[in-house]
TrEMBL record:
Organism for this UniProt entry: Fontibacter flavus
Spans through the membrane: none
Keyword Signal applies: yes
Protein name as catalogued: TRAP transporter substrate-binding protein
Any one Pfam family match given in the protein's UniProt record, by short name: DctP
Keywords assigned by UniProt, alphabetized: Signal
Length: 314
């Protein structure tokens, strides 16, 4: 599929296309709409960001590849997917990396987070900001996941991320990468037995219609990243860059507020829909993934130094 990332429309307006895979009720989509409105206001109508949700322009990975060749301007991507293109960012996919929300925010909004946003530039991908994607937990069709043993033998949909795949393996499951847009059907047809995601994604995707058990073990807090193709970014003048970056930063603040409200609403609606929500002890899950950290220490010592930096941050 060929799309055009940026062009001059009528009256010399610069149009930048933004494609993503989420539905229009998702807080991240709402934040990107907010950003597009801000860009229009700041530029006095000279820059327009057109948003194409629901995988209209491709899957998450396909959209990133379109950015790399400059055929698409912007997209939202999970940092777990982005690690295939910018390997250092996979540190954010480490399970139980953050002590709490305050620690996570300090990492993402500080020097470490800013450094990771620019990690993909050599791969033609520039991070603009992080969006809160909450904490990921397991949902399944047949039973709650109270311990790692409950995952053994199950086929669990996972992100296209080596770290996520290895984490699922450490719990004794069979990791099965499936694109987000195809997951509902995969759950219905038994291609996978369950998946893992945050409460708003479970609710807005309607996966709860198939999976009636949600086990909130909160194994990862993988953020979403708003990225722009450097092939587009480098065509912008300094003022256009400032408008877009400022709008992205403001949209991130707005999205964090939306996200907190959406999590509460999602829990309410999931309970109404008859989903059994449990909060298992995290200790056995934490113990099960310690081998991942030991492996990273040996195989990826530079990344382990980043882990230590993150853990030491007060």
């Amino acid at each position: 599929m060929l799309v055009f990332s940026t062009c001059k429309g009528p009256g010399g307006v610069r149009v930048i296309k933004l494609g993503h895979g989420l539905g229009v009720t998702h807080p991240v989509h709402e934040a990107m709409e907010f950003m597009a409105k801000l860009v229009e206001e700041k530029s006095e109508g000279n820059v327009e960001i057109r948003i194409y949700p629901n995988q209209q322009l491709g899957t998450e990975r396909e959209l990133v590849e379109l950015l790399q060749i400059g055929s698409l301007g912007m997209t939202k991507v999970s940092s777990a997917t982005l690690e295939s293109f910018a390997p250092k960012i996979q540190v954010l996919s480490m399970p139980y990396l953050f002590r709490d929300d305050a620690h996570r925010d300090k990492v993402l909004k500080g020097d470490i987070g800013k450094q990771l946003l620019l990690e993909g530039e050599k791969y033609w991908l520039r991070g603009l900001c992080y969006y809160d994607a909450g904490k990921r937990s397991f949902y399944s069709k047949t039973k709650p996941v109270d311990t790692p043993e409950d995952l053994k033998g199950l086929k669990i949909r996972t992100l296209e991320s080596n770290m996520a795949i290895n984490m699922i393996k450490s719990f004794g499951s069979s990791p099965t990468p499936v694109s987000y847009g195809e997951l509902y059907t995969a759950l219905q047809q038994g291609i996978v037995d369950g998946a893992e995601n945050n409460p708003p994604s479970l609710y807005t995707s309607r996966h709860y219609e198939v999976c009636k058990f949600y086990s909130v073990n909160e194994h990862t807090a993988v953020p979403d990243v708003l990225i722009i193709s450097t092939k587009v970014w480098n065509t912008l003048d300094e003022e256009e860059k400032r408008w877009i970056q400022e709008a992205a930063d403001e949209s991130a603040v707005f999205q964090y507020q939306l996200w907190a409200e959406s999590v509460e609403e999602s829990y309410r609606e999931l309970k109404k829909a008859g989903v059994t929500i449990t909060f298992p002890d995290q200790k056995p899950f934490r113990e099960a993934v310690e081998s991942l950290y030991e492996n990273v220490k040996v195989v990826q010592p530079e990344m382990y130094k980043m882990v230590e930096k993150i853990r030491e941050l007060e």
